Amino acid sequence: MANKPDTTQLKNLPQIEEVLKQPILASLQDTLPQKQLTEAARAAVDTLRKRILAGESVTIDIADIAQAAYNRTLSLTQPSLRRVINASGVIIHTNLGRSVLAPEAVSAVNQVIAGYSTLEYSVQNMARGSRHNHCEKLICALTGAEAAIAVNNNAAAVMMVLSEFAAGHEAVVSRGELVEIGGSFRIPDIMSLSHAQMVEVGTTNKTHPIDYERAITNNTAMLLKVHPSNYRMIGFTESVGIHELRTIADAANHARDANATAATTCAQSDTIANRAQCPHMLVYEDQGSGAFMHMDFFGEYAEPTVAESIAAGADLVSFSGDKLLGGPQAGIIVGSKALIDRLKANPLARALRLDKMTLAALEATLRLYLQPETAAERIPTVRMLSETPDSVRTRAVKLENRLATLLPAGDAKLAVVPEISRAGGGALPMCDIDTYAVEITFSKGSAQACDEYLVRQCPVPIIARIKQDALLCDMRCVLPTDEIEEIAQGISAYFFTFHDKAKGDA
Ligand SMILES: *Cc1c(COP(=O)(O)O)cnc(C)c1O
């Protein structure tokens, strides 16, 4: 229904200089360069001009135009990456930054970023050192592995392992493990990117040892096992464990060594570099979450630990730093010294290396694991996973009581209710973690509107959960600092939007 444009309106559009004089934009003169302000004002006027030309009837108000220009500058003046409060009950929430760092890790980061550091300097040798040394000993002590390297994230770790050991060769993987992990990480894609030739075996629900055995050729470099992460099949399923893969790989390597043709190319030298041409078959596990402690409190759902996979015979295991481990974003690869040395020499190790902030946080987090009795308490992710429902309930009751004193009578009904939290981060997907939430049922407004208010209008966005017509604040990941009060203030501010100012102040 395009109307004829009212072009007489065009001459009512204000001059850019006039828009810039409006108080809201004038207030930004000291914060933003003139160029940015002028562009924002021009864009706001242009938008209006286009609407007029499109035949829309518009009201021209210079204060509104200045406000629109101001809103355009917010992306420059307001922090985009900022703190939020996680009342969603998802502990390793990838959208909300996964793991909260322990105070020890935060302070380690602060120590090294405000000045110079030993990032690549050895105090002992008074000479150049390696950034790979800061965490390696700790990782080895905690996993029983001989050597380790940490890179940008686990996706990078998988990429690096496949490139170094399987490029130009075959890597055998079960069809049941060809998963997509959030954020478009797909095993087949990483395979082709690293020039490894993927050989799928078994079926979606069942893979047997014989499937791997039949797939092995002279060009097989790797048996790959991928943790299915946030995906689980139940019922008629079967997969092959690390221990069995070890047995299969050993038998195949043995047969290869004994094989006459293999002998001519490989037997002169036993170095791993030479075996690469005639690959020595490795067992590699992409463990995803990578637990360091056996989480007994999850019973049969407990994830295998890195140490268990090494002990079961994996040559290499990789896992994330910021999932179950509870540290910063990183990908850790553990294995024998010979294999890890090859990874350290790969150019990808340089491209995917960790920066000093991450190294500091990772080292401090790992050190906390040296004392397993206190690690669960001191590492927030592990604490949130293991906190008893009753303990979470204490925070729920506190929020409920606070809200009861703050909310206008009759606007809402409050209750502390048993609920289910999730581990997130691809860990423990089948595990219902009992928790408590504060449930708010609305007489004024609605759960949807309140949810939006908490995210968009609160100084620190609050991420809650909606269940039918109620808003749930799961208290499991709400930090016992000031966050309870911040949530209470946010929710009551929402309800006060229904009352006039005078009443609100009363
Ligand atoms: C999460 C995950 C990855 C990716 O790890 P990032 O640290 O997020 O890069 C890879 N593989 C598996 C099995 C995972 O669960």
Can you describe what's shown?
The chain has 506 residues and is α/β, with parallel strands linked by helices. It has 22 helices and 18 strands. It has helices at 16-21, 23-26, 34-53, 62-77, 103-113, 133-143, 154-166, 187-193, 209-215, 242-258, 260-266, 272-275, 306-311, 337-345, 347-351, 356-368, 372-378, 380-386, 389-406, 447-456, 483-496, 501-505; strands spanning 85-86, 90-92, 121-122, 127-128, 147-151, 170-174, 180-181, 185-186, 197-201, 220-226, 282-288, 316-320, 331-335, 412-424, 433-442, 462-463, 465-467, 470-474. A seven-stranded mixed beta sheet has the order 5-13-12-11-10-6-9, with helices on both faces. Helix 5 (103-113) packs antiparallel against helix 16. The longest helix is centred in the N-terminal third of the chain and has 20 residues, at 34-53. The protein is globular. The structure holds pyridoxal-5'-phosphate.
**Gyration radius, in Å:** 29 Å
* Helix-and-strand structural type: alpha/beta
How are the strands of the biggest sheet laid out side by side?
5-13-12-11-10-6-9
* Helix run count: 22
Q: Which ions and ligands are bound to the chains?
A: pyridoxal-5'-phosphate
- Estimate what percentage of residues fall within beta strands: 15-25%
DSSP strand tally: 18
Poorly predicted regions: 266-276
Query: Average pLDDT, to the nearest integer?
Result: 91
